[in-house]
Amino acid sequence: MGNKRSSELMLFCLFFAALCLKAFTTGITIYCPSQKLNWTDARLYCQRNHIDLVTWNVVNTSQLAKFLVGIKVQQAWIGLLRDPENATVWKWINVKSGTGISGDDLSQSSYWAHGEPSSNCAFVKEDLKWHSVTCSDAHDFYCSEKENTYYHNNSLNWHNASQYCKNESDGDLATITITNTDELKKPGLIGLYRQAGETWSWIGQQTSDYRNWAHGEPLTADCGSFYLENVTWHSSKCSDKLSFVCYDDDMVVVNENKTWEGALRHCRGMGTQCEDSLKPCTYLYDLLSLNVLSNYVIDRIYRATTDEVWTGLRFLGGEWWWADGEQLGDQGMLPDCLSQRKHCGTLSKYDTKNWITRDCSERRNFVCYKLFKERS
């Protein structure tokens, strides 16, 4: 553990995650490993050694910018990805499941740099070579009408240009073939666009295998990075090797099946030396104790391999207590007249609004959380 983290730069951010709890807050620590990797390998590294690449759900812009300034990193991968099913949509990675993407479309977010995210429309530049450009930017364009190609000095974005061609000439943006490529004399949009995934296709009814891409084109910038200079997001080629930022929290989802007592012993038997403190200290662990649920905690337990996980909830002396010695805030949430042996509390991955009472001798996954203890 120490060898792994000695090659990383880290920042501890106390992240309250809307919990407002006495018993538990979520501490987020972010790391920037020393090596540079492509986006896919960067995410694998984060998942193997931490939790995942950072997203704005766990670390905000100012925290990340301050961190990167301190370690002199200008650009870093974050957990932002183009939707493989819809090339115009960008989303955060799905931290809950550890695969895929989730949440709202971020393509119109104000965090993008000017001209970002890169879109997937083809534009003929002055060199008469084809370049991938942002579809929302306005340019002159070419329309096809039957066998003819016409240039229009009327600056429109790609989608409006396509509609213009349909309305004015009963055609569409131009499909370029080996026979009509010589008609391209000026910069302008053509009818080639990128569909979901990495397939470029022609709009309208005509098809053509002809391509005249400039060197290095077309860009397939499907992965999101954070750029420190203007504190914005950029779409970058996923194969580029960049720095990247991972994150950890104070919870450990243990994918071992133990009884409640076994889970308690396991958590309390864990302990690590602090590596991000100015004073000597130790991190101790306990079974998760919390009075109020948060979406963050709910998402974190989703990766357990059992449907329910043990928490630090235990019925003792006619009342419900947490493993850290605090009483359950609302005793009415759970029965005070229990069926035999159902004296321990779980949380379900699928019914996350209620505590569940179970036989303490049953075996399942459990959640430990980290406690900070300064050594004298």
From TrEMBL:
Keywords: Signal. PROSITE patterns: C_TYPE_LECTIN_2. The keyword Nucleotide-binding does not apply. Pfam families: Lectin_C. Residues 1-27 form the signal peptide. The keyword Signal applies. Gene3D superfamilies: Mannose-Binding Protein A, subunit A. This is C-type lectin domain-containing protein. It comes from Perca flavescens (American yellow perch).
